[in-house]
Amino acid sequence: MATAGAAGGVPWEIVYEHEVDGNSDIYVLAAGGIPRRLTEHPAGDSHARWTPDGRKVVFTTGRTGKPQIWAVAAEGGPESPVRRNGAAESQPDPSPDGRHLAFISDIEGSDRLMTMDLETGATTALVRHPDGTIFGNPHWSPDGAQVVFSSDWPNGHQIYAVDAASREVRPVSGTKPGGCEPRFTRDGRAVAFVLRGNQRPTSQLVEQDLATGRRRILVDWPALNYDLAYSPDGGEVAFASNITGEWAIYRQRLSDGHAWRLTFGGGPARYPDYRPRAGAAEP
Length: 283
Description:
By secondary structure, the chain is mostly beta strands.
């Protein structure tokens, strides 16, 4: 169970989405500090991810009338669009080498998983399931060879992995309760995701070994637990839980399961992402 307060010993910095007075913006919280607001717009900003060098944050925003992908410097400043078009595009995830971006787009009328070359602007449709499919939460493997994602085709949300070169898709979760919000572990040998099913009032965060299919439970609080992210060294996770009645972000050490609450007051906080070690502030 979670305890209030801050954990010490390991430097960290987390970007996250926080709703204040009914509007969501992007904030950054560092060890020993107070939350720092990174964006401010009445349309709302969400689903923030660090670039691999820790210098920028990419995020989804509604400020153009449809969800679009924008970026902002890690220390703040003017925000700018990553792409300009009339499509609804969201949930960006930069590749480990910083050269590509995975995201969800309905640019041809229905959602699909796409990648973009950030230097040339060229795009590739990695996965397209039948019209009406709901895709979610792409995340690159540490070697940049694969992208995991969720899709509700053909029968409820499941986790899949796609080879970035061949576009070959294979199922990962493969169980009836399904899964969503996948994340590769730091060594790429396993994928963590949310296991819920049938709109139950609680959910688990589980980690599944890709070679053996074996699972271990990371978080099993009597609540909805979502939005997991691994620390740069893989020794802990951050996630969101509504265990207190309001969504808040927690850190949990994987060695012993000890957890700390990070966000307080103002409104729900979700979708944490650790700043890569190379860009993280010193404690």
